[in-house]
């Protein structure tokens, strides 16, 4: 074998390695932010039906049964939180893989937009449900 048969290894560059470390740390911070967001959404999902049940039990004449609607809204928040967590973990794994490959190219993932749109849909449906319930009471 001739030395020309082996590809030359790129020289060690401290600036490049530190930039990779900063990028990895930023990816970790982003993942932690998504974990907090997901946990908040899941917490809202558990809290909404509990609050509605408590309010319902405190009313002596129950004029409407909001349990079904609050359970749907709660499950929606839990689902969005789980979806956000899954997407964030996958995105974090892909970013770390790109950093290791030495061919890092920034691409917007759109995760925040997807979660924001899902929350907007749940909020709109909740708004319509509360509006209809208040008009029929």
TrEMBL record:
Q: Which domain of life is it from?
A: Bacteria
* Pfam family, any one: DUF202
- Where does the record place it? Cell membrane
Q: What is its main location?
A: membrane
> Where, by residue number, does the polypeptide cross the bilayer?
31-52, 72-90, 111-132
Instruction: Enumerate the spans annotated as DUF202 domain.
Output: 22-96
Q: Name one GO cellular component term.
A: plasma membrane
What topology does it adopt in the membrane? Multi-pass membrane protein
Q: Which UniProt keywords apply?
A: Cell membrane, Membrane, Transmembrane, Transmembrane helix
Q: What is this protein called?
A: DUF202 domain-containing protein
Q: Which organism is it from?
A: Oscillatoriales cyanobacterium SpSt-418
